[in-house]
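Write out this protein's structure.
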Amino acid sequence: MENCTEDDSMQNGIALFQLLVYIPVLSLGIPLNVIAFWVFCCKLKRWTETRVYMVNLIVADSFLLFALPFLMYFTKYKHPNDNLCSTIEKIYFTNMPMSILIITLIAIDRYIAIKFPLKAKILRSPVKSASICGVLWMMLMISSYFHLEFHNKKEKFCFRKQSIQPSYASLASITFGYFIPLVIVIFCSVQVIKCLKKKTVTSPHETKLIQKAIRIISVNLCVFTVCFSPVHIALLSRFVVDVAGACSLLSEVTACIHICACLANSNCCLDAFCYYFAAKEFQEFPSLLPTCILMRSKKNQSQESQPPTDQVMT
């Protein structure tokens, strides 16, 4: 197994960049997540699917924020792969994928409400949402544990991959942990926006609500794409470098990964806007999405009430 040497000056530059980014992220992220947790757990009266997902997203973001100071320290100094390192790596590499998957679940949940209105009451419930989140937590923790246990046997220092042996497990994680969810989020968001645009408007107030809802979904989609795409593209580049055995490119690609990871981790703060709009959704979306559902339900019920011969003809 071949290892590549690191550029210490570049590593110091990465550590400085992390410091400049993560101090504001921690300063904003910690109070915003505390407030969001208090609002979603204590202030809202009714538990819904969105509320369950948002609480899990807050938990994932909070654990990620907890890991950031350790990440900065481990990047600055060559910390050995000890128990502390293993614990922080498991926290870090579990909660970023969990954030991505929860955002995907929120998009799927909205899509189901629109696409399958008659089955939505069967397919959707807070208990089912909590069960899905529980299964995902368990799967990601188990996956992270075994992957890092295997990885730590190869590497000497924490959060540093110096070997150029390709990790096909990482490739699978990138594909199934981000790019497939990205396709799902884009598809579901586009379908919901189409439904809202087709909705019959009965008042100027309703028009404003629809426009606001479309902006919320569009902004959430843009934030998701902008925050998480660069780091996963950089990780794919690292896999290509490992396959090619190009040690000369390793320092540049590693720096790119760390810089893009700063953008991805800043999503802990940007999610606060998602929290706000999700809270507003409890008040405003009932006049939007359920109306689409009702329109579809009435359409389906009218089709079901037609004689069988008419259904065959249509």
